[in-house]
Amino acid sequence: MEVFTQLGIKPLLLVAQIINFLILMFLLKRFLYKPILKMLDDRKKKIEESMQQAKDIEQQLQNAEKMKLEKQEDAKKQASKILDQAKKDAEMIRKDILTKSDDDAKRVIKKATDEMKGEKEKLLSDVKKQAADLTMLATQTVLKKGLDEQKQRELIGEAIKEIDNFKIKS
């Protein structure tokens, strides 16, 4: 102990300072160090939870983006199917309209042809009647002039041939 006194250290004061130091360490550990460590641990846990939540949100965002792309693809496919079906329907309607218009045109043409045939037959009948009237008139004129029977037959035959030729041309 003499060494302590020679160095100017008082042993009682040294023991008191060591006790004070230990009390201070105990108080700091109990009231300051533990709460600070607890606060740091809590903060660390919150940061870890926040990081995990951020990862979860990022994963959800990626999944949502994938689902969005899939839905867009599905929508494109459905739109394509609808468009194809609309084209098929339009083609069927076009063919139906063409068929109906062809049928209508054929009916109109047939009706016009039938009417033309009727008109043609009527005209031919009128022409034959007029030709027969002209032949009779010519025959009467010839008879008045006194043609012989041979000449009259020739004239009537020629008139009949002309009427037949007229029928063939029409």
Give a brief outline of the structure.
0% of the residues are buried. By secondary structure, the protein is an all-alpha fold. The protein contains 3 helices and no strands.
Key terms:
single chain; 170 residues; mainly alpha; 3 helices; 95% helix
Explain this structure to me?
The chain has 170 residues and is an all-alpha fold. It has one domain (2-169). Helices cover 95% and strands 0% of the residues. It has 3 helices and no strands. The longest helix is centred in the middle third of the chain and has 135 residues, at 11-145.
Write the layout of secondary structure elements.
Layout lengths: L1 H6 L3 H135 L3 H21 L1
Helix pairs in contact: 2-3
Main sheet, how many strands, which sense, barrel? none
Question: What's the number of extended β-strand segments?
Answer: 0
Provide mean pLDDT, rounded.
86
Q: Report low-confidence residues grouped into runs of 5 or more.
A: none
User: How large is the count of helical segments?
Assistant: 3
| H/E element sequence | HHH
Q: Provide the number of structural domains.
A: 1
Strand content: under 5%
Alpha-beta classification: mainly alpha
Termini distance?
162 Å
| Rg (C-alpha, Å) | 64 Å
Helix content: over 70%
